[in-house]
Amino acid sequence: ILSTGRLEAVTDGIFTVGMTLLVVGLQVPERGLSAEALHRALRGLLPQFLVFLLCFYLLGKLWVEQLHVSAHLRRVDRIGLMLHLLWLLQVVLLPFTSDLMGTYPEVFVSQALFHLNLFGLGFLPWFLWCRCARRGFLDESLSSDEEVRIRRRGLALPGTALGALGLAWFAPDQSSLVYLLLPVLRRVLDRWGDQGVRGPASS
Questions:
Q1: Tens digit of pLDDT for each residue in 54-79?
Q2: What share of the chain has pLDDT > 70, as a percent?
Q3: How far apart are CA 138 and CA 154, in angstroms?
Q4: Under the phi-then-psi rule, with left for phi > 0, alpha for psi from -120 to 50, and beta for the rest, what region is 38?
C-alpha cells in the first residue's frame, strides 16, 4: 500500500510534457513563401490545428478531473500503481497519435489508433476508480452518491471514443466530430446520476 503524493507529482509532470508536445505537430510553413502561398499553407494546417485544440482540451479536462479524484484517493497498491502508469503511457502517446491522425485524416488506421488512444485515456482511470472503490482506498468522507457520480462520468470519454471508432470505419475524416458530443454526454450522465440520487429519496 503506497501513498499518492509522489504519484500525483509524476502525473503532473507527464501531463505537462504531453500537453506541451502536442504543439510539435504544428509545423511552421517554410520560409520564402508569398502571402498567397502562406495563406494556403495555413489553411492546410487547419485540420492539425483543430486536432491540437481537441487534444489539449481533453488532456486539460482529464488533468482537472484527476485533481478531483486524487483528493478522494487515500492510498494505492502496486497493481493500481501499474494501472496508473499505463494510463500515463496513453498521455505520452497522444502527441504521436494526434499528429498521425492530423496528417492522415482520411486513413482508417490513423483514426483508429487515435480513438483507441483516447479510449485508453478514458477507460483506465474509470477502471482504476472502480477498483479503488471496491478495495476501500477512497476517502471515508466521500459519499456513496458522489462515488457513483464520479464513476458514471468516467464513462463519457471511453464511450465517445468507441462511437468515434465505429464511425471511422465508414467516414474516417469525419469521425473526430463525435467528440463534440462529449460535453452533452457528460451532462446526460450527470442528470442521470442526479435522478438516481433523488429517486430513492423521493419515494
A1: 999 999 999 998 888 888 888 888 89
A2: 92
A3: 16
A4: alpha
